[in-house]
Write a structure and sequence with these properties.
This protein is 41% helix and 17% strand. The chain is built from 14 helices and 17 strands. It has helices spanning 6-10, 38-51, 61-80, 94-108, 127-135, 153-161, 182-191, 211-214, 239-244, 279-295, 297-316, 342-351, 364-370, 386-403; strands at residues 19-20, 23-24, 26-27, 88-91, 114-118, 139-143, 166-170, 195-199, 218-222, 233-237, 255-258, 263-265, 321-324, 332-337, 354-355, 357-359, 375-379. The strands form 5 sheets. The protein has a 7-stranded mixed β-sheet, with helices on both faces. Helix 12 (342-351) packs across helix 14. The longest helix has 20 residues, at 61-80. The N and C termini lie far apart (46 Å). The structure holds pyridoxal-5'-phosphate. Pyridoxal-5'-phosphate binds at residues 31, 93-95, 122, 124-125, 170, 174, 199, 201-202, 222, 362.
Length: 404
């Protein structure tokens, strides 16, 4: 693990040199997607230049090399979250991973049963359940969010007592930055006879996650939110469940035998990887995992926490600022400046070269609960600096003076 030096880290990310509206780019939208270091870009480029071929199919050496690159990436991603390689299913993104879980678990569960979610979910952990629960005559229930931005534990106990077939919840809220106690939720789900699915899109990139310690049944995340490329995501799924549950997508590679009448399924994890896979994406994600390991997730988490504290302090001095979410959350700060619309505040930041997110953050039901159409969201990562946070505060002060 190298010593944590943000200026050294920044040199690895070519995009951070860009100017935006005449100012150096301050990229503070890492909950949406992250920037890529040279090592990730080079790994993908090298793959296409040197080893590109379809995997698991060719008897020739190049295909073997490509297969090795893909399977090595699987092993690397597995060890990053404490899983076995066969428990790692590559998907397009966290959204596809959650659709997979919703599809196969709702199909296997009895009609009339229920699915437990929470009110702080991203649309990708709501809509797939709406689609599949409806198809299978099942109901959805939601654990309440309290006014301090944390989940209501009494609801968790009460709703689990009604025996849902699965409890699917986010580890870290992409709006509030709330860090949920995933280990306890998984233990409670298991005790109630429910499966546990963790949306780890905002946790795996930022903190040490170990699926065995957590004892979840499923865990989903996206490569592009952790310095990797777009188009590659991960679903951790216990092997026993892969054996027992039905397939998701059908096609090449996910079968053992096919006749005109019926088919039999390949072994885990191939049963859930139909068609030609995103090999370059897996290679890029593996390089991203190496990069994060090199810096150290503990260092990254501590750095983001410090930036979040500075951000809260700096923004607090602005008249009318309101924060959404607990003080001890992750490196995500959601806020509004008085009655100024988040889009207008976001535009003031943009003029100063600062990229923050302004909108509903794909969490419309949560926005309704918060009683706002939108919030501004600054989300930090390993390459952000205190100076960038101060620039954001300055831009918000300008917005307040002009529109407040
Ligand atoms: C908590 C959470 N879950 C799921 C997703 C979906 O990720 P993707 O769009 O990469 O599938 C996001 C994206 O912002 C997220 O923040």
């Amino acid at each position: 693990m190298m010593a944590f030096d943000v200026e050294v880290i920044r040199k690895d990310f070519p995009i951070l040199k860009r100017k935006m509206n005449g100012k150096t780019l301050a990229y503070l939208d890492n909950a949406a997607t992250t920037q890529k270091p040279h090592s990730v870009l080079d790994a993908m480029n090298d793959y296409y230049k040197e080893r590109n071929a379809n995997i698991h199919r060719g008897a020739y050496t190049l295909s073997q090399e490509s297969t090795d690159a893909y399977e090595t990436a699987r092993k690397n991603v597995a060890s990053f979250i404490g899983a076995k390689p066969e428990e790692i299913i590559f998907t397009k993104n966290a959204t596809e991973a959650l659709n997979l879980v919703a599809n196969v678990t709702c199909e296997a569960a009895p009609r009339g049963s229920s699915v437990l979610l929470t009110q702080m979910e991203h649309h990708s952990n709501i809509v797939p359940w709406q689609l599949n629960a409806k198809k299978n005559s099942q109901r959805l229930k939601y654990v309440k969010v309290r006014s301090n931005g944390t989940l209501c534990n009494e609801d968790v106990d009460e709703f689990l007592a009604a025996s849902p077939h699965i409890f699917s919840f986010t580890h870290v809220s992409n709006v509030l930055g709330t860090i949920n106690d995933a280990k306890t939720f998984c233990r409670k789900a298991k005790k109630a006879g429910a499966l546990a699915c963790v949306d780890a899109a905002q946790s795996v990139p930022h903190m040490k996650v170990n699926v065995k310690e957590m004892d979840c049944d499923f865990l989903a995340f996206s490569g592009h939110k952790m310095l990797g490329p777009t188009g590659i995501g991960v679903l951790y799924m216990k092997k026993e469940l892969q054996m027992r549950l039905p397939p998701f997508l059908g096609g090449g590679d996910m079968i053992k035998q096919v006749s005109f009448e019926q088919s039999t399924w390949n072994d885990p994890p191939y049963k859930y990887e139909a068609g030609t896979q995103n090999v370059a994406g897996a290679v890029g994600l593996s390089a991203a995992v190496d990069y994060l390991r090199g810096v150290g997730l503990q260092n990254i988490a501590a750095h983001e926490k410090k930036l979040a504290q500075v951000c809260r302090k700096e923004l607090s001095s602005i008249k009318g600022v309101k924060f959404y979410g607990p003080k001890n959350g992750s490196g995500i700060i959601s806020f509004n400046v008085g009655k100024i619309h988040a889009h207008d505040a976001g535009e003031f930041a943009n003029r100063d070269g600062i990229a923050i997110r302004a909108g509903h953050h794909c969490a419309m039901p949560l926005m309704k609960l918060l009683d706002v159409p939108a919030t501004c969201r600054a989300s930090f990562y390993l390459y952000n600096t205190e100076e960038e946070v101060e620039r954001l505060a300055t831009a918000m002060k300008k917005a307040q003076r002009a529109l407040g």
